[in-house]
């Protein structure tokens, strides 16, 4: 049996249970003498023998029957859009609206979409005490919120919060259906991209001071839970950790963030703030709110590139765009300061960042252009180890490293150029002259005199 078949079989059992308690709740509402739903019956489905993703998740997180019901309510529209209409039409012979059930319709989806009101109706009926208890399922400290698994969509202004649609994170939907999490892709709704590298810590060539300062970030990731909870430092410290990486392009800022994530088992998502300014102006709150929530629940490292775009020193407001931009800065600054996770901002020049914001960083780490000995190390590491490939000896590489000031990324670009040329002419030779030609190309690209 495939993973999808196994998951589908388990989901069908859960949906049968949900249909039964939904019918029972409707019947009990009209006829109090009829039996009310027995939510604990769901335990019969959550068997240790069932290794479907949904059952494994429920057992691993010790979900209560009430939590399972809310989970199923948020899940159903994605796999069986006619589910609720079918049950309602069977139980209610007379057509018309039934406010107790809640629910809404989408702009494109034609099926019944459950709301917080739907959940309270099934869980508690008209029992006000049970309704009050059930509200905790949608609180900010609940497991659903902390994992960014389920939440209530924002209703129209002035309407009750519980009239918002029950929303489920797409990655959990993928887990329950296909058995694996899918990373979100960069889009208008998600202005971030996952970044990683095959390089390791040994490939990162930086001054000792920069390496030691990066170690502080690694230590924070490994020990902040102990420090905040067991050592009770959360009374004194704000949540999260904020670091500024500054240095010229190509000096290793992005690579350092990726290797930090690799060492600590954290996924790194890059947000290009220049794109946020140009494409999302006026919508920062909408497009970044979910990013921060997901980052917190999944312990992502957020890497904000081109930080100068939003956090640079501002002049007077000249137009509506500047006014919006200042509002965006205020919102993003607030989210960064309150985010319970690691946030890294990258800038080419520290002097471009407003002094008031600099003070909010726990770490400010400088990435200088590599010195001659560091350039020599990068040259040695960057060339591929391939049989019959001839490269300059160490004396020539050291001469190149001393003579030409170039960034680590620039060196990699030169090596790529030389490798392609060696393959194109079938010479398997990377000569001193060929390397010089590659460096000259890099200098011209950067407007430097060769």
Descriptive keywords:
single chain, 450 residues, alpha/beta, Rossmann fold, Helicase, Ruva Protein, domain 3, 6-stranded mixed beta sheet, two-stranded antiparallel ribbon, 19 helices, 10 strands, 50% helix
Written overview of the protein:
- This protein is α/β, with parallel strands linked by helices and 450 residues long.
- It folds into three domains: 3-178, no CATH class; 193-366, P-loop containing nucleotide triphosphate hydrolases (Rossmann fold, 3-Layer(aba) Sandwich); 372-446, Orthogonal Bundle (Helicase, Ruva Protein, domain 3).
- It is 50% helix and 9% strand.
- A six-stranded mixed beta sheet has the order 5-7-8-9-6-10. The protein has a two-stranded antiparallel ribbon with strand order 1-2. A two-stranded antiparallel ribbon has the order 3-4.
- The longest helix is centred in the first third of the chain and has 28 residues, at 3-30.
- The protein is elongated.
- The relative contact order is 0.08.
């Amino acid at each position: 049996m495939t993973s999808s078949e196994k998951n589908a079989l388990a989901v069908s059992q859960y949906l049968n249970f949900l249909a039964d308690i939904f019918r029972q709740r409707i019947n009990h509402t009209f006829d109090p003498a009829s039996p009310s739903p027995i939510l604990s019956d769901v335990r019969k489905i959550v068997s240790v023998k069932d290794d479907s993703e949904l059952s494994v998740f429920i057992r691993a997180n010790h979900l209560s029957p009430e939590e399972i019901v809310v989970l199923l309510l948020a899940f159903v529209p994605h796999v069986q859009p006619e589910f609720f209409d079918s049950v309602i039409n069977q139980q209610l012979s007379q057509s018309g609206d039934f406010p107790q059930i809640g629910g809404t319709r989408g702009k494109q989806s034609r099926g019944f979409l459950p709301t917080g009101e739907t959940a309270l109706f099934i869980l508690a009926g008209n029992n006000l005490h049970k309704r009050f208890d059930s509200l905790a399922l949608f609180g900010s400290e609940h497991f659903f919120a902390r994992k960014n698994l389920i939440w209530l969509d924002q209703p129209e202004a002035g309407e009750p919060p519980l009239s918002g649609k029950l929303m489920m994170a797409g990655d959990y939907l993928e887990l329950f259906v296909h058995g694996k999490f899918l990373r979100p892709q960069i889009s208008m709704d998600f202005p971030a991209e996952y970044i990683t590298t095959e390089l390791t810590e040994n490939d990162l060539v930086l001054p000792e001071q920069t390496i030691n300062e990066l170690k502080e970030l690694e230590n924070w990731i490994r020990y902040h839970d102990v420090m905040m909870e067991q050592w009770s430092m959360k009374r004194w410290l704000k949540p999260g950790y904020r670091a500024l990486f500054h240095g010229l392009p190509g000096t290793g800022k992005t690579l350092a963030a990726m290797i930090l994530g690799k060492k600590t088992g954290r996924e790194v998502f890059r947000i290009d703030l220049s794109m946020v300014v140009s494409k999302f102006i006026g919508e920062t709150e909408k497009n970044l709110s979910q990013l921060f929530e997901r980052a917190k629940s999944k312990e992502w490292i957020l890497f904000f590139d081109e930080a100068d775009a939003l956090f640079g020193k501002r002049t007077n407001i000249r137009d509506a765009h500047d006014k919006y931009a200042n509002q965006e800065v205020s919102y993003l600054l607030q989210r960064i300061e309150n985010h319970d996770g690691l946030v890294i901002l990258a800038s080419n020049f520290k002097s471009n960042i407003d002094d008031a914001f600099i003070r909010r960083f726990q770490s400010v780490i400088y990435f200088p252009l590599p010195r001659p000995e560091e350039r020599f190390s990068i040259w040695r590491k960057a060339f591929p180890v391939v049989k019959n490939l001839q490269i300059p000896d160490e004396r020539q590489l050291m001469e190149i490293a001393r003579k030409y000031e170039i960034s680590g990324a620039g060196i990699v670009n030169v090596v790529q150029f030389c490798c392609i040329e060696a393959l194109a002419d079938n010479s398997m030779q990377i000569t001193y002259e060929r390397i010089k030609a590659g460096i000259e190309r890099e200098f011209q690209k950067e407007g430097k005199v060769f």
